[in-house]
Write a structure and sequence with these properties.
Immunoglobulin-like, single chain, 2 domains, 18 strands, mainly beta, 1 helix, binds copper (II) ion, 228 residues
């Protein structure tokens, strides 16, 4: 019994020492520019706050990067929101920002799959060694002809949606409870049984909020834009 305790203590001590070594050792990622001490900070300005495109059409948008107080370093972007069915490409993996002038970062969104349709709130992070800038943008992938909204876990998904005039929107109730799709002005008021489908064709241009009668906290909005 005593031997086991001694072995146990020795194992714990070994783990502890190992841990000290690991935490003292430098993590390879933070090692890249470890001799460079960053001065100042950088600013990032999105060219647009709402980026709109049609389903199936690539769209580009740019960010302006500038140096403040002598900042000189690499800046990397990442998008913290999962964008399902959308391919995202930055034109560079890192942007060297210096006091010599503004730098432009370009990102391309390619909404390739049908599930890309809808308004996506994106959290974008631009990061250097010591500075982090977080900002928000909306990517609005406009639907045309036919669009499906899933009702799942007491949510309309997509929750915000832009469509072209004349588009048929079909709601599909995936939940095991009864919901409704109800416009406050009674333009439509559809009871949705379990596993039920129901459609409405939006011929008028405008903004149409709707909700669920049994669960009024469930809301959605459809914005209809003119067909060109
Ligand atoms: Cu409901």
């Amino acid at each position: 019994m005593r031997n086991y305790i001694i072995i146990g203590v020795a194992v714990l001590a070994a783990i502890g020492i190992g841990y000290l070594f690991i935490s003292n050792g430098e993590n390879p990622e933070s090692n890249i520019n470890s001799e460079v001490v960053e001065k100042g900070f950088f600013n990032v300005e999105p060219e647009q706050e709402v980026v709109q495109t049609m389903f199936g059409e690539k769209v580009e948008t740019r960010f302006l990067l500038s140096s403040e107080l002598g900042f000189e370093s690499d800046v990397k972007f990442s998008i913290k929101t999962p964008l399902i069915g959308i391919k995202v490409d930055f034109d560079n993996s890192a942007y060297f920002v210096s006091k010599d002038g503004e730098k432009v970062a370009t990102v391309t969104f390619d909404p390739m799959e049908e599930m890309a349709v809808g308004q996506h709130n994106m959290t974008i992070v631009a990061k250097s060694q010591n500075t982090v800038r977080t900002f928000f943008m909306i990517l609005d992938v406009v639907g045309m002809d036919e669009v499906q909204i899933d009702i799942e876990n007491y949510n309309f998904e997509p929750h915000g949606l832009t469509i072209v005039q004349g588009t048929k929107v079909t709601w599909y109730n995936k939940d095991d409870v009864i919901h409704s799709v109800t416009a406050p002005d009674n333009l439509f008021d559809i009871d949705m049984q379990r596993q039920d489908y129901a459609s409405f064709v939006f011929d008028e241009v405008g903004t149409f909020p709707y909700f669920c009668k049994p669960h009024p906290y469930m809301t959605g909005t459809i914005t209809v834009i003119p067909r060109v």
